[in-house]
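A reminder from the course coordinator: this example appears on the midterm review sheet, so study it carefully.

Given structure:
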């Protein structure tokens, strides 16, 4: 599940704390062509306000109507307290071609959803706290009683549903560490924030970093190699060196290429990259397999010229690698606040 989906949990928790009745809807299985993958989340508030999506079409409208009607019945005391209306249930859309057309599901797609009235939001805070510490978490929902339990998870675990128990895996937010705080870094940081990355910037050069003042972008103090080592990059971390200064970029790359970061890139021409790899191999004994992980020249080849265009090419490649790795590892991410 991606971090935009998990942001739904943040909204659901806040709405619940504010006194609203909230229902969570999870895509648990799809057949044919479906707009959203298993694990996608939607939260529906008692007044019809929503966060997230399970189809991007008319399914949401029907779910809003169902939820408002159910909450209205409970408020009017027409449904006994503790009745099945407060327990998780299944909803299927698109069983027939006519229904698929009615709800805007492409190519006759079918969705199996779990509809879950939110009774307690404490588990959401616990889950977000764990993922903020870059932990993988399994959330288990008992369909018989609505009980939610959290436990540790391993990379590669996927959503599982057998009709009695729904298990979904939540993991740390995708984060991007930029070495350098110049004009290009600022463009990358701005766009990465829009892509919902947790953006971190390290630049010990005060003349550059002093001008870094962007909402949602965190400045990390210290030398690049120390910063990379201390942050302990995991498979949800990308690191891009953009200072064009070997003294800074190489120091960061020394640690980054030995880490679990899913993407490591560096600015510079093909000749610069070849020289850099030779230098790292000869002076720092870096192995060939470690150097092979370096993306350089960084970014996809789209003929980029301006800082904004180069930023697009860099992030396009980061996202390409992220999505390819996530597809192989069946990894997930969360909306948790940036880790300290």
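Designed residues:
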């Amino acid at each position: 599940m991606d971090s935009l989906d998990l942001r739904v949990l943040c909204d659901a928790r806040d709405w619940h704390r504010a006194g609203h009745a909230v229902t969570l809807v999870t895509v648990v299985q799809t057949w044919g062509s479906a707009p959203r993958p298993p694990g996608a989340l939607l939260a529906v508030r008692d007044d019809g306000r929503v966060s997230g999506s399970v189809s991007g079409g008319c399914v949401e409208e029907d779910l809003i109507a169902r939820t408002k009607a159910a909450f209205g019945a409970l408020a009017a005391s027409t449904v006994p307290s503790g009745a099945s209306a407060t327990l998780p249930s299944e909803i299927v859309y698109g069983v027939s071609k006519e229904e698929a057309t009615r709800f805007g599901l492409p190519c006759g797609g079918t969705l199996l959803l779990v509809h879950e009235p939110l009774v307690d939001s404490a588990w959401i805070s616990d889950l977000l706290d764990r993922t903020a510490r870059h932990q993988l978490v399994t959330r288990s929902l008992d369909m018989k009683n609505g009980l939610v339990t959290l436990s540790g998870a391993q990379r590669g675990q996927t959503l599982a549903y057998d009709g009695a128990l729904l298990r979904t895996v939540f993991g740390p937010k995708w984060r991007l560490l930029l070495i350098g705080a110049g004009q290009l870094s600022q463009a990358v940081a701005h766009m990465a924030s829009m892509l919902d990355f947790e953006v971190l910037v390290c630049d010990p050069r005060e003349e550059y970093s002093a001008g870094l003042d962007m909402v949602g972008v965190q400045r990390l103090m210290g030398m690049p190699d120390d910063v990379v080592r201390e942050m302990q990059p995991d498979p949800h971390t990308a690191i891009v060196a953009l200072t064009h200064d070997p003294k800074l970029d190489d120091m960061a790359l020394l640690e980054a290429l030995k880490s679990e970061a899913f993407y490591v890139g560096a600015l510079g021409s093909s000749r610069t990259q070849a020289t850099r790899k030779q230098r790292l191999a000869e002076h720092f004994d870096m192995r060939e397999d470690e150097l092979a992980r370096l993306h350089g020249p960084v970014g996809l080849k789209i003929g980029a010229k301006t800082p904004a265009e180069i930023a697009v090419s860099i992030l396009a490649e980061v996202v390409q690698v992220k999505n390819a790795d996530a597809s192989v590892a069946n990894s997930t991410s969360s909306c948790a606040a940036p880790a300290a």
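The chain is about 35% helix and 20% strand. The two ends are 23 Å apart (CA to CA).
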